Structure formats: structure tokens, C-alpha cells
Amino acid sequence: MIKIIQQREKCIGCNYCVEVAPDRWAMSKKDGKSVLIGSKDKKGFHAVDVSEVELDANKKAADLCPVKIIQVIQK
Amino acid sequence: MKDKIEVMAPAGSFEAFMAAIQGGADSIYFGVDQLNMRARAANNFLLEDLPEIGRIAREHNVKTYVTLNTILYDHDISIMKRIIDSIKENGLTAIIAADHAAIQYAFTKGVEVHLSTQVNVTNLETVKFYAMFSDVIVLSRELSLKQIKDITDGIKRENVRGPKGELVRIEIFAHGALCMAVSGKCYLSLHTANSSANRGACQQNCRRTYKVIDLEDGHELEIDNEYIMSPKDLCTINFLDEVIASGVTVLKLEGRGRAPEYVKTVTKCYREAVDAYLDDTFTDEKLQDWMNRLETVYNRGFWSGYYLGQKLGEWTNKHGSSATTRKIFLGKGVRYFPKVKVAEFILETHKLKIGDEILIIGPTTGVVETTITEIRVDDKQVDEVGKGISFSIPLEETIRSSDKIYKVVPAND
Q: Cα distance from B90 to chain A (closest Cα, Å)?
């Protein structure tokens, strides 16, 4: 299992996470920020546990994020 | 008759917004949420802040401009529209836009459009094109004053009018940071850090030091300044008469990321300078005073930009600011006693003594500058107070518990 966390408020809507991990990320049409699909909001930190299969794509998303608000933790 | 000149100040917080008003700004510009050129910074207002901003602006009779000037993707359109709708609802004055989607939407909603420098307008024909949508056009930062005058003369000669029916007004950057890229359209940050300057996420690569190495033989070239891409800050106050004579009627002061005291100092200097120009009371002594005051707040050294026709930029030779002063945090506001005009504070760190210059900064207070003439602790006069002590000082301006108090010290202290 891995945990993906996004500090959503700081997102600037650049779309990189969606480009590299489209199964886990989508752009919100409402506020123009990215949405971590399946996540729950805990005081601004949106988190979801997913399988290892998604590790590479989401690590890439974390690396590419210009405002460094994505964290991928291997459990 | 001389045209009215608008002094336009930046704000990245309510503190800076109030400071701009105190400095005498005619108009204030700021970002909302992420669709502006300072998206990375924490210096943006929220959509929910717009009613309060509208209220303060009406109370103080200042115009308000929302920067909405990044490039826009499809997923941004909805939030862009919500911001523009909210601007209209809350009676703010205009948006500063670069992307045609924002220009078009605001235009159809009857919200005034100002054209961002990001559009890189450099000639009269382009001004005529954008005049269909826009009442104020910010020219490219790289034009000379002569080129600017040709454009403003052309607007009068050819009667180029904006949607409001008035002659299109021309705005230029008058003071503050400049970057090395043409009209801010820079890709360095995107290439090195995936962080697009054009989405407001500039990593400021140009502000760092670089070595130049000959890859063929590995020799490091001798250069006398490693800040090879970091321009000094723009300052036009020393040739403001020429700037105004070029037909420019809006002077933009850069600095949405700057502290409230920066905003107040710079705005006040330019306000005084513009007024002195209009009253024919501009003197060398006043100019020297303005220059001294501008140097007290954040700056990378000053140069005149491209307005006087220099071929190349002037580069700074150090990292960060050359300001002659800096502020250190002392403590917080406690309460104000209006009848006796006394302000009470708690000193959380350092010492404060008679003769110290202080700043009081807060979201409603803005920036209050004063020199300590009297300190009282438990109603007894003292010369100095230390950490942890509540004290009071005589003060004309009201302070609040949301205020912070700072001491102004020489930068090298």
C-alpha cells in the first residue's frame, strides 16, 4: 500500500499530476485545482491509500508538482 | 492642462492594502486565488475577501484591479468566470488580463478590462486592436519613452477609444522588480523546475548566481558579477517628468509580494512626486528625499529600466535587498485608549527604548510609522522596556490587538 497526500489549497492548477497520473488525478472544473480521486479531506490535507501499482505514476506527479504539495508515502 | 496621473499600488494582504491607501494610491491591484502572476506566494486574497475589499475601497474612494493574467487552461475557465462575476457583484473596478478568454468574458459581462504587460503591447496598431475590449493598456516594459510617446500621441491623433468611450489610457511600470525576460514571458523556471512563470509560479532563476564555463576547454570565464541575469529594480522617480511627458497616465508600482511598509513608502514617494510634478513644485531636494526613502525599503539597487534607451540591463551584484533599513519584530498590540491617545503593546522579544523608530502593522491599521518619545510601564515613565513587558506609548493613530510592532534598524545591524 502507498499513501498519497495533497495539500490542496496551495494547488495552482498546472495540470502536471493529471498528465502523468490520470487515473488518480483530475482537474476540478469548479475551482481549477487538481482533485486527488478517492481522497478524504483532513484539515486541508487530502489523503488516499492506493496499491503499489500506482507508485511510479504518482511519484512522478509529486516530483513534477511545481508547488510541491503532493507527497507519496510507501507503507 | 496636465492630465490626471493615477498612482497604482500593489497589495498582497489587507495590511498592504491599507498601507497603499495611507500612501495615497488612486488604485490598488491584487491577486485572487491562483490565476495571477504571484500564484506561488501566499500574497493572494481569496474570492471570499472581495466583498470586504469592495467595502474598504468604497470607503476610501480607491479603484480596485484584480490581476487575472496567467495563461488559462480549459479547467481554469470556471474559476476565471467566478472571479469576474464576483468582481462585478462587489463593485470592484476592473480586471488586469492577458488571456483572451478572460478579456472576452469580462468584456461581455461589462467588467472593465485592463491589458496586462504580459500581452507585450509594443505598437499603436496593437493598442487599436485591444481598444475594442480594454480601457487601459499596460505597455511592454521594454519600450523607450520615445516609443511610448509615439503610441500616446497616436491614440490622441487617431482618437483611439476604449469600451467606456474615453481615449485609451496607457499604463507603465514605474517602480519595482524587473525580470530579465521580455514582458515577463520567461520559461527558465518551467525548464528547470516544471514551475511556470506564466502560471504565477516563477522560481526566480534569474536572481541566482551563475558561472560561465567554456565547455570546449573547461575554462571558467572571468566575469565580474555572478548575478548575470538579475536586473536591478526599476526606479523612475528621478525622471518622472519625462515619464509623464510621454503621455502615460497610470503609474504601476510593482510589489504584490512586498511588505506593507514597502507599499506605503513607495506609494507615498510616488504620490508626492506626481503631485509635485502637477503643481510645478518638483525640486532636487525633494527628489533626494524620495530617493533616500525609497532606499530604506527592499531594493536590489535602482536603474531606469529601458525607458531612457539603454541597450542592456543593469545587473545587481548581490542577492536580495540593498535596503538601508530592516524591521525586527518586537511584539503585539494590546489595546488603544482613544480619549488619552495612548497605545498599549506587549514586548515579546528584544528591547525598545526612547528614540527608536517603530512600525505598527495590521490588517485594519495598515502601517503606522513613528519615533518613540515616551514609554510608560504601569503608568510610570521609563527609558527602556525589555522582553515580556506590557508598555504604552502616546500615539495619534488607533491600534488593534491584530497589530504587530516592529523596530526599524539599519540593515547592517
A: 19
Domain extent at residue B101: 6-179+231-303
Interface confidence (ipTM) of the complex: 0.82
Residues of B in contact with A65 (CB under 8 A): 194
Give the sheet arrangement for strand A70-74, strand by strand.
A40-42, A45-50, A2-7, A70-74
Percent of the residues in chain B that have a pLDDT greater than 90, as a whole number = 76
- Report the CATH number of the A2-74 domain: 3.30.70.20
Contacts of B378 (CB under 8 A, 6+ apart): none
- Each residue's pLDDT tens digit, B291-331: 999 999 999 999 888 898 865 667 787 778 889 999 999 99
**Identity of the residue in B75, B195, B196 whose CB atom sits nearest the CB atom of A32:** B75
Rounded Cα gap, residues A48 and A34, in angstroms: 14
Interface size A-B, in CB pairs within 8 Å, comes to 55
Domain ranges (residues) in chain A: 2-74
B50 and B123 assigned to the same domain:
yes
Average pLDDT score over residue span B77-105: 97
The alpha-carbon gap from B92 to the nearest alpha carbon of chain A, in Å, equals 21
